[in-house]
């Protein structure tokens, strides 16, 4: 992590995708035993399967919405599909994870083709259980507009990782 700042600010997650917020709940994202730390790098092969997500809190009557987006689609130099929605789960009870919520948009494996992409997990606290409709398409999603539409307020947690296309050297990995 570069010294001197919040990784979400250093990585321009705050600004590009989110407004400044105060973390108030723990959010752990784990791919194959590896905990995602903001700014870390994961290869596309490491994120093919849906991650395990652990949400903190202490009141199981509190519900959360988890959003996973890529603000760098299709390429960081021309992100004209910003934000690409990779996953959307609502009604996740505190102290559990997405398996206990309602999956609105199923997990799609990130497969960046050009450049380094930021894949961002954002957690919102819901005011209560609510009906959330799947967007008509994954591209040009707006986390801010979504939060406003469903009265979610500012995030309570976020974490991101960098991902780029697997290089062709060294043979094909399966």
UniProtKB/TrEMBL annotation:
It is found in: Cytoplasm. Transmembrane segments: none annotated. InterPro entries: PEBP, PEBP-like_sf, PEBP_euk. Pfam families: PBP. GO terms for cellular component: cytoplasm. PANTHER family: PHOSPHATIDYLETHANOLAMINE-BINDING PROTEIN, PROTEIN FLOWERING LOCUS T-RELATED. Belongs to the phosphatidylethanolamine-binding protein family. This is Protein FLOWERINGUS T 1-like. It comes from Coffea arabica. The gene is LOC113702874.
């Amino acid at each position: 992590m570069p010294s001197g700042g919040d990784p979400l600010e250093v990585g321009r997650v705050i600004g590009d995708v989110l407004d400044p917020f105060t973390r108030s709940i723990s959010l752990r994202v784990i791919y194959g035993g590896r905990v995602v730390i903001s700014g870390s790098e994961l290869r596309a092969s490491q994120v093919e399967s849906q991650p395990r997500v652990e949400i903190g809190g202490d009141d199981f009557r509190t519900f959360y919405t988890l959003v996973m987006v890529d603000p760098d689609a299709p390429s960081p130099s021309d992100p004209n599909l910003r934000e690409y929605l990779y996953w959307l789960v609502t009604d996740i009870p505190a102290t559990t994870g997405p398996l206990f919520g309602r999956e609105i948009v199923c997990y799609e494996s990130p497969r960046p083709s050009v450049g380094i992409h930021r894949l961002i997990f954002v957690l919102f606290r819901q005011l209560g259980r609510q009906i959330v409709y799947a967007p008509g398409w994954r591209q040009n999603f707006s986390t801010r507009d979504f939060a406003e539409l469903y009265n979610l307020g500012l995030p309570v947690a976020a974490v991101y990782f960098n991902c780029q296309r697997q290089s062709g050297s060294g043979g094909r990995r399966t």
